Amino acid sequence: MKKIGVLTSGGDAPGMNAAIRAVVRKAICHNIEVYGIKYGFQGLMEGTIEKMEIGSVGDIIHRGGTMLYSARSEAFKTEEGQQKAIEQLNKFGIEGLIVIGGDGSFRGAQKLTEKGYPCIGVPGTIDNDIAGTDFTIGFDTALNTVIEAIDKVRDTATSHKRTYIIEVMGRNAGDIALWAGLADGAESILIPEKKEKFETVVQKLKRGHKRGKKHSIIILAEGVGSGIEYGKRIEEATDLETRVTVLGHIQRGGSPSAADRVLASRLAAKAVDLLMAGKAGRMVGIQQNEIVDHEINKILHEQHTINDDMYTLSQELSI
Ligand code: ATP
After folding, report:
1. CATH of domain 3-138+256-300
2. For position 182, what pLDDT does the model report?
3. 127 is catalytic
4. What is the pLDDT of residues 65-78, one digit of tens each?
5. Is 214's pLDDT higher than 90?
6. Residue 277: how many CA atoms within 13 Å on its side-chain side?
7. Of ligand 1's atoms, which has the minimum distance to the CA of residue 71?
8. What pLDDT does residue 202 have?
9. How far is ligand 1, taken at its centre, from the CA of residue 124, in Å?
10. What's the CATH fold of domain 140-252?
């Protein structure tokens, strides 16, 4: 393999730049040319492709976002769009492609692989919702952003004796909420994977209030529903002053944590290794601190699961 391409796709995640850097440097180290494709699969179809050098990825390891930009492309989901993409790859003589993104992006990578074009997926999404890897690039940074925000909310919650509902991201996965809840001692953690009865949450809040608690924090994953609606119901049911904070896109930005930079570097380098070994249609991941790889097709049919022990612990610690 003499020429490879790299793109970022779907929602951006802190650490994607560190992954791009690792792809470029690792490939050049092995005398492989690297082409950066801007704006994900959309840019691939349109041919926004540039050769990258060692210096192209200088001074980006600590930056959030993605220097290759990202996009969501409906056109690429069509047969015609995928053909266009392959034509561009052939035009540039690119022999293999590294796709950094979430499960949607891997569906795209799988489609190209099935058409005979080798792709390797690198999991980059703050949601931590991909099977076959304990962590995705960006999750740790997002989690730290959430913790920082909750710490601040906690100060004002205490001053005013309020209940706070904090809505966090994660799409259909509860990992951000679960980890943040455990790290910040939330009273209740509401995640799509576990059904916590509304009555149980209310009872816990009332009990805490009776015990003299000055504030309560409830973390709700966006996959459960609207924090605003939940807040209204809680206020009505408890008679406690309740406020809702929806953290939104601040969770996607910011300088990547050390853990995300290291993870991104390790996963991206492994993706280059796989292309060099002639592999295709695989996703790299980390499991029990070992870098692993799995068939994308298999991963797309599996569900990421939360750590049940952590959930139980969070409940035991928030009595
Ligand atoms: P995140 O989890 O952060 O949202 P993602 O990779 O899951 O990231 P999506 O918007 O689902 O984000 O997918 C990114 C892009 O991948 C889509 O815009 C589309 O171009 C491509 N894609 C998604 N599904 C398919 C599919 N079934 N076939 C071909 N391409 C697809």
Report:
1. 3.40.50.450
2. 97
3. yes
4. 999 999 999 999 99
5. no
6. 12
7. 18
8. 96
9. 12
10. Rossmann fold (3.40.50)
φ, ψ dihedrals at 119, nearest 5°: -125, 150
Domains 3-138+256-300 and 140-252 share a fold: yes
Q: What is the mean pLDDT of the chain?
A: 96
Question: Whole-prediction pTM value?
Answer: 0.96
How would DSSP label each residue in 194-222?
B---HHHHHHHHHHHHHTT-S-EEEEEEG
pLDDT of residue 161: 79
Question: How is the chain split into domains, by residue range?
Answer: 3-138+256-300, 140-252
Residue 35: closest CA among 1, 66, 6, 59: 6
What is the residue with the minimal CA distance to atom 13 of ligand 1? 104
Where does 69-210 show beta strands of DSSP type E?
Answer: 96-101, 119-123, 163-168, 188-190
| Nearest Cα residue to atom 10 of ligand 1 | 10
Question: Torsions phi, psi of 98, nearest 5?
Answer: -105, 125
Tokens, residue 48: 């926004």
Check residue 121 and give its pLDDT: 98
50-66 residue pLDDT tens:
999 999 999 999 999 99
